Amino acid sequence: MSSKVGTDIAINGDGAVALAWKQINPDVVAAYPITPQTIIVEDFSKYVANGEVDTEFIDVESEHSALTLCSTSSSAGARTFTATASQGLAYMWEMLPITAAMRVPVMMAVANRTVSGPININNDHGDVMSARDTGWLSIFAENVQEAYDMSIIGPRIAEHHEVQLPILVNLDGFILTHAIERMTPLDTQHVRDFVGEFKPLYPLLDTDHPVTHNLMDGPLFYFPHKYQMVVAMNKALDVAREVFAEFAKISGREYHMVEEYRCDDADYIAIVLGSSFGTMKQAVDNLRDEGMKVGVAMPRVYRPWPADEIAALCKGKKAVIVMDRHLSIGAYGPMFPEVCASIAVNGKMPEMYNFIYGLGGADTMVSDFMSVYKTVEAGKANTINYLGVKE
Amino acid sequence: MVNLADYKEMIIGSRVIEPGNSEKFRTGDWRSQVPVIDKSICISCLSCWIDCPDNCIVVDEDGLVDVKTTHCKGCGICSQVCPKDAITMKEDIA
């Protein structure tokens, strides 16, 4: 085991993603800078300049061009990565559903950042949630180590021949992208062996087998093509489980479709995405010391949505609290209805509460998360609550 | 029930791996009118054959014309150019 794992390093989340990319050595990277993602493409450009990778590094003039380039270069048969955030992802939006429908396994790191306006560059999940329904796989990291690990796991899920969908690798802006943490990288050779060679389906550059990509679909074919994506997403649930198990063998780090913390005997559980999972674990520990039976869980993979795992997790709980770091204004947080639906179609509903928190980088501390559980236990929570907003 | 294509038989990602298959795309499905040739009036001048934008007029060994409707969009150019008014556009109820 020890030979597969490198020496511990201190690195920020963006650097960790760039390091994973360097070890994978993709064929093409499209780069356009946007805070807080910029360090990823900056660090990677140094690897390119120093000859440490032989990637074709392409500076484009906008995010829309970046993703257009990625979808076409992946169609040509090249393993292609890019990174973005916030307005950058918004600027790519037109190409998001097209890239997914082209069934090309592009990997994109998203340094999660709120979407203006008002103008704000801090962390929340407004960017990636707006990309939710476009057919991309979506996977979340809790800390710098996981940002690195998910960047290695990502292509394995996306490029599986029965999946063939692009993937968003999410890391919280600034909280992970700019914070330096201790991390254990893998040995480069083991990363290469794990990720393997990119074997594209129907590549454009295979001139012996001419193929046309991204054609028009009439009504007879459009809906069945979308259904093919549903089948691929369902398959991705199994593929992700397999890849996690395989990754545990080379790294010693175990990942699950839904990560659970002290949920087994809990009366109250919260469900949260990204770096807040770590903060909530501390809140759970503190409340357990006070005698409250609480737990917290994080869907590791948000698309495909692990409905069965969520339903099993919530079964028999007194209350389920869904923590959304984004708000569908006029409705709920985006994850709340999905959790409700997963439970409702599988069994009896517990009490359900939605807490919207931390929009635009609003600081959310351990004590804030403790107050969430306490408000619910005291019966003072509304169905939808806006943490810290004076209503 | 809507009769959609079978997703299992379709290549993923709206790709076409068979060159030249647009020949199979029956653009004639859009048609609301179809040309009908009165062969007793036709003088085989082949004006319709020259002007048809979709290659839908076929000519047999004797130089007589007929209509192949798989790609005919019912534009009516053939009936317009016919000097003998031998071609009339009729509602396509098929």
Describe the 3D structure.
The complex is a heterodimer of chains A (391) and B (94). Chain A is of the alpha/beta class. Chain A contains 13 helices and 15 strands. In chain A, the strands form three sheets. A seven-stranded mixed sheet of chain A has the order 3-2-4-5-7-6-12, with helices on both faces. In chain A, helix 1 runs parallel beside helix 7 and helix 3 (63-76) crosses helix 4 (86-92). The mean pLDDT of chain A is 96. With 94 residues, chain B is α+β, with helices and mostly antiparallel strands. Chain B is 11% helix and 17% strand. Chain B contains two helices and four strands. The longest helix of chain B has 5 residues, at 47-51. Chain B is elongated and about 50 Å long. Chain B starts with 32 loop residues before the first strand and ends with a strand. Classes of the chains: A alpha/beta (391), B alpha+beta (94). The A-B interface holds A 101-104, 164, 201-202, 209-217, 219-221, 223-225, 227-228, 231-232 and B 3-7, 10-17, 19.
Query: How big a fraction of the residues of chain B is strand?
Result: 15-25%
**How are the strands of the biggest sheet of chain B laid out side by side?**
1-4
Q: Calculate Rg of chain A over CA atoms.
A: 21 Å
Helical residues, percent of chain B: 10-25%
Bin the strand percentage of chain A.
15-25%
Mean pLDDT, all residues of chain A = 96
Q: List how many beta strands of chain B DSSP finds.
A: 4
Distance between the termini of chain B: 20 Å
Biggest interface, chains and residues, is: A-B, 26 and 14 residues
Largest sheet of chain B: 2 strands, antiparallel
Give the ordered list of helices and strands of chain A: EHEHEHEHHEHEHEEHHEEHEEHEHEHE
Distance between the termini of chain A: 54 Å
SS class of chain A? alpha/beta
Compact description:
The complex is a heterodimer of chains A (391) and B (94). Chain A has helices at residues 13-24, 38-49, 63-76, 86-92, 95-101, 126-130, 144-159, 188-195, 219-251, 276-289, 307-314, 335-344, 366-377; strands spanning 9-12, 28-31, 56-59, 80-84, 107-112, 137-140, 167-172, 180-183, 258-261, 268-271, 294-299, 301-303, 319-324, 351-356, 384-386.
